[in-house]
Design brief:
mainly alpha, 7 helices, single chain, 2 domains, three-stranded parallel beta sheet
Length: about 170
């Protein structure tokens, strides 16, 4: 489901533990960047990942070249990578290959609205984000809007309506 906080949760985990890894990268909005599953778009995403993990000036010529370069540069490294909003298996294939690409202890976090894509990796843990229930959602909204856990006087009804419209 969209809008339940997958990206926010992935970013929080990433920021909290990235210091424990040799290299790290976060690639956001993959679905929007790679709208047509175009190889040029995937090439740009591969380039960003290479730029984040490599201190060398390496240029990706095409997606096959990028896949080989990533496999070579990631091999043996303990990395954390966040691939946000993945919606096609090619995005996983060309950005995170197989588990053999990564060194021991590596973590690859994938956010997606399509759970079936996660079957790409045979060894994976899946965390399903669920929408918040009434009072939780209202409290979170109020913390953001009013810096309080409850609506400011006079905004109770409007706050409830906003939370309902947002679907929790």
């Amino acid at each position: 489901m969209s809008g339940v906080g997958k990206t926010t949760l992935a970013e929080a985990v990433y920021k909290d533990i990235k210091g424990k890894f040799k290299k790290s990268s976060i690639i956001e909005n993959i679905k929007d960047i790679s709208k047509q599953n175009d190889s040029a778009d995937l090439c740009r995403l591969q380039q960003k990942l290479l730029d984040d993990i490599s201190m060398q000036n390496i240029r990706v010529k095409n997606v096959t070249d990028g896949k080989e370069l990533l496999c070579e540069k990631l091999s043996g490294l303990k990395v954390i990578i966040v691939l946000d909003d993945v919606n096609h298996v090619d995005q996983l294939t060309y950005l995170a290959g197989g588990l053999e690409w990564f060194g021991p202890g590596s973590i690859i976090i994938v956010t997606t609205t399509n759970r079936d894509l996660l079957n790409y990796y045979k060894k994976s843990e899946i965390y399903m984000c669920e929408e918040m229930k009434g009072n939780e959602a209202l409290s979170l909204f109020c913390q953001s809007a009013f810096k309080e856990s409850f609506p400011t006087h006079g905004y109770e009804k409007l706050s409830d309506e906003i939370v309902k419209l947002a679907g929790g």
